[in-house]
């Protein structure tokens, strides 16, 4: 175990540190006469060369020591909690990656999170998805955007393991926004764990549509504990091209909608990338912190893992081994043919 720095020592309970090694004890023992605990190996070496207490420097009349099991249990519990906190803090630094996962993660369990982009046509959902894919380079591809007529799927992963063992994979579904394609959306309402309800902040009709249709459909068809956010896109155009009266009305309507349904609001620019990554990371964290959703995601992951194991164990029978007759039946038939041939020769 590493030595404690001055910063670490301040955060560790004093009784957990061996007075000799200045490290957290792994196998603490209690020196009977002076009443202090030490690391077993350290006090054993000390008593080989000394006849005094390491703490009081007084001569020892009784050199016996006994295991301090209560202290050991307390130290183990503290270390487990410390590791959990460190792991959680490390995970919070995650980034969203749109590339191939490391080969070292291939056999690790996965958490598959489904996120849907909901909203009317021309609100910038596809541009938002492309920013998550390409980052600032997305400005070179946004001009080729076309109307979404079916759900476009993108897959991402987080570059930090969740709970030090799970690979988090995100399926992002860009849902068609035109009314004639709305029948395609039902499956994505039902199975998503998170949703971004996207509006065009320069078009107040998209905000009304978000409240009257997209939000209601998500409540009606979505899972009970789905996490969602209201995304007001095109904030750059909103500030530059909309007059004061329009901005005031839009902001009031958006805030009333959010307050009524207790939805967080994020003002973003998918084209410029403003607030996109932070907003998406917040949604992922909310999903992972939702215990009911997380239990469901872990259960699905476990079921998928067992299914894949069963598939690996299945063996396909080569076509050359397939026969309409069993081996015993084939052997019997051959014996009968041999007997008939023998009878004909005898006659």
TrEMBL record:
<feature type="region of interest" description="Disordered">
    <location>
        <begin position="315"/>
        <end position="336"/>
    </location>
</feature>
<dbReference type="InterPro" id="IPR001806">
    <property type="entry name" value="Small_GTPase"/>
</dbReference>
<dbReference type="GO" id="GO:0005525">
    <property type="term" value="F:GTP binding"/>
</dbReference>
<dbReference type="Pfam" id="PF04564">
    <property type="entry name" value="U-box"/>
</dbReference>
<dbReference type="Pfam" id="PF00071">
    <property type="entry name" value="Ras"/>
</dbReference>
<feature type="domain" description="U-box">
    <location>
        <begin position="11"/>
        <end position="85"/>
    </location>
</feature>
<dbReference type="InterPro" id="IPR027417">
    <property type="entry name" value="P-loop_NTPase"/>
</dbReference>
<dbReference type="InterPro" id="IPR003613">
    <property type="entry name" value="Ubox_domain"/>
</dbReference>
<dbReference type="GO" id="GO:0016567">
    <property type="term" value="P:protein ubiquitination"/>
</dbReference>
<dbReference type="InterPro" id="IPR013083">
    <property type="entry name" value="Znf_RING/FYVE/PHD"/>
</dbReference>
<dbReference type="InterPro" id="IPR052085">
    <property type="entry name" value="WD-SAM-U-box"/>
</dbReference>
<protein>
    <recommendedName>
        <fullName>U-box domain-containing protein</fullName>
    </recommendedName>
</protein>
<dbReference type="GO" id="GO:0004842">
    <property type="term" value="F:ubiquitin-protein transferase activity"/>
</dbReference>
<feature type="compositionally biased region" description="Low complexity">
    <location>
        <begin position="320"/>
        <end position="334"/>
    </location>
</feature>
<dbReference type="GO" id="GO:0003924">
    <property type="term" value="F:GTPase activity"/>
</dbReference>
